[in-house]
Amino acid sequence: MEKVWLARYPAGVPHQIDLHEFRSIPDLLDKSVQRFDRKTAFTNMGHSLSYGQLDAESRAFAAYLQSGLNLRPGARVAIMLPNTLQYPVALFGALRAGMTIVNCNPLYTPRELEHQLKDSGAEVCIVLENFAATLAAVLPKTPVKHVVVSSLGEMLGVKGSLVNFVVRYVKKMVPAWDIPGAVTFNAALRSGRKLPFTTPDLAHDDLAFLQYTGGTTGVPKGAMLSHGNIIANLQQAHAWLRPHVDEGSETIITALPLYHIFALTANCLTFVKVGATNVLITNPRDIKAFVAELGRYPFSLITGVNTLFNALLNNPEFARLDFRPLKICLGGGMAVQRAVAERWKEVTGRPLIEAYGLTETSPAVTINPLDIAAYNGSIGLPLPSTEISIRDDAGNEVPLGGTGELCVAGPQVMKGYWQRPDETAKVMMPDGYLRTGDMATVDQDGFVHIVDRKKDMIIVSGFNVYPNEIDDVMAACPGVLEAAAVGIPDAASGEAVKVVVVRKDQTLTMDDVVAYCRSKLTGYKVPKVIEFRDELPKTNVGKILRRALRDPAGPATAVQKSEAVKREPASAG
Hints:
The chain has 15 helices and 26 strands. It is α/β, with parallel strands linked by helices. The strands form 5 sheets. Strands 2-1-11-10-12-13-14-15-16 form a 9-stranded mixed β-sheet. The protein is globular and about 65 Å long.
């Protein structure tokens, strides 16, 4: 495809990036520490870590893994933490020791966590004590040999003891758990400070992350993201941001969880390069407390998903904040809605910039110019050093302006799926392009517009939900003959999960279905709408017609029994 988008690049943005500025992610950190040693790197709940402190603490954690646990480079280290100061320390510590990070959603159910730990072969898991009971339930079935348990207050100084007391005994947010041999996060750091550390020789091809994502099979797969993939993507993002960013002076609000690829690359890594302060929001679901936290910082950048921006706008205190320092508001993870974008501009005075990416692309692919005046309905222009191609089902490129599947090539595209060459072959084309599963078109100025999704993936508040995973869970639900999940529009979360169920036990209720799903699925995957039918619509070869399930059941002559219920959406964590 002719690169018509290059002509629309903002002034100062190069067409290609420098892939060789950093050898690895630890090399990036080392150079940032040299430049911004005394500046604040991360702050959470009123306590901060400077770049120098991040350097020392992450080095101690690296030594603990390397010398204390005798792990070799390439060993998988699972991190099951929300946005706390422990996360960047564990992240950079494990990467500095040459380990591969396996990010785990703290809200995983035992079933989901067991699969990810087994599939990745993780040897270590760092978990917040609030979720240690989940890990304890599956630990004997996994290859995990070492467990580090942290508490919310562990790195908050003198305030930490009070935080832990409230969390444990007042709010009772820590279920009982028992993991023999587990050590606390601070104990691991104390041990590491006394141990030797040898910097491993890392290169672009070394594996940095197994970042899990689902697929049309419903089986979560680990996207293999190398140090080179991540370095490329943060360089691409930095090239776009550079004309608008003052190095060493920015404050970015990080409300999306760092275990999500969007916040991991766009907030944590990209802004470590420029010496920014990351304000970590541990619980963005508490909008009142979140807005109060925003009032404490003259923040210049914020990222989020559409549902988060909408929730902020619906809080009356948000409009009273001082938005004069605000420069960039970036939305991704799900489609930005025009109504939300227009209201955001009205309240903050800044446009809500939409970007697009995938776990498999580390994640950024396209972004709108940061100087656009208002929402334009597109996902923007391809980033520097990024190639896109719009292709038909046969893999042939369609003419400019035509609709087809968006395919991507570039240095940020994953190496493949961990130990799943068959699944890798389904998305990687022979010429190196990745199939995104999204139907798109490119206009004459090079702006990309998403038309529809080719695959059945559901996006709930920016989190991917795969229908076949829901189907697999429902198939084991007592009283269910068969079931199928689809995504439906939802004002609060963009999309919601709807499940259509055929009962073999007519006494099965919707409450039974919800209770079973809550025991097996993370909250945002639990169906919000449940419908009972006598049969599922299928093709003549027996394939379920999911499109026919999105609308309510037809007349009684076609479907004799049909009930639907709406439920409040669970938090995506």
